[in-house]
């Protein structure tokens, strides 16, 4: 597989370190499944995120939101087309990303087999890369405890998306370990976000109230915020509320979000902690036998664009 150039904004020493890291994980190298006996890293979520963003010089997260109807037809003869698709995407892109996000709805829709695919996909992701279980969970305390156990213990995701509508006790079970992170929905990328998230509460929009509450709850430094790239004007004031929290930023691909603002205002003052997600634009860059190569090309293009924006604003 063609190796695309390594670029970034961190300088020559960091680039040399990245090259050494990638030597053991060369693009296109077949990844071996990792047994569930592998123990979660003891480092905090924030430290793990900083490490992978610096090692790969990347803010890119790929959303593994696989629509079976769009999988290349030649994979139909494989034993499990969705899993094979994920495997090839991961093998082609793992050196370009800081995270992979699995939208659980795409796997739940596959029934019992979907949960097995989630497990096998997670085994294929190198352990230094952040994994995000995107299920937007949140319920009364004992129910949320089961959600947290499933995502953080049974599947061993590094992080999960949660909604705060039911209050602190609905997300508290996700906050008990510093090596796990809960990404709280603040201002989402869909058009319907304006229906409720912009309502004024005591003189401030609801999304700002949520960001303020999440910052207050962040005693273990393991809460992040979900802010869509389709809201560039709101990213900067939300970052001021939460200067040192990670942001998960969807919407830069097919939804047409503003990548420049996502990097400039989604990052902290060091040009880090923004996890910028793209899914369909990468996964389905091609529907032919070259889909993995095309995915790598698009992922590299996005990574390089982000690196140039980082250089522009953070030096």
Molecular structure report:
With 315 residues, the protein is an alpha/beta fold. It has one domain (41-314): TIM Barrel (Alpha-Beta Barrel). The protein has 12 helices and 10 strands. The strands form 2 sheets. It has an 8-stranded parallel barrel with strand order 1-2-3-4-5-8-9-10, surrounded by 5 helices. Helix 3 (81-93) packs across helix 12 (291-314), helix 9 (232-241) packs parallel to helix 10 (259-266) and helix 10 (259-266) packs across helix 12 (291-314). The protein starts with 11 loop residues before the first helix and ends with a helix. Residues 1-26 and 33-37 have low confidence and may be disordered.
Topology:
Layout: H1 12-23, H2 45-56, E1 60-63, H3 81-93, E2 99-103, H4 104-108, H5 112-124, E3 130-137, H6 141-154, E4 159-162, H7 168-171, E5 181-187, E6 200-201, E7 204-205, H8 206-217, E8 223-227, H9 232-241, E9 247-249, H10 259-266, E10 274-278, H11 280-283, H12 291-314
Parallel strand pairs: 1-2, 1-10, 2-3, 3-4, 4-5, 5-8, 8-9, 9-10
Antiparallel strand pairs: 6-7
Helix pairs in contact: 3-5, 3-12, 9-10, 10-12
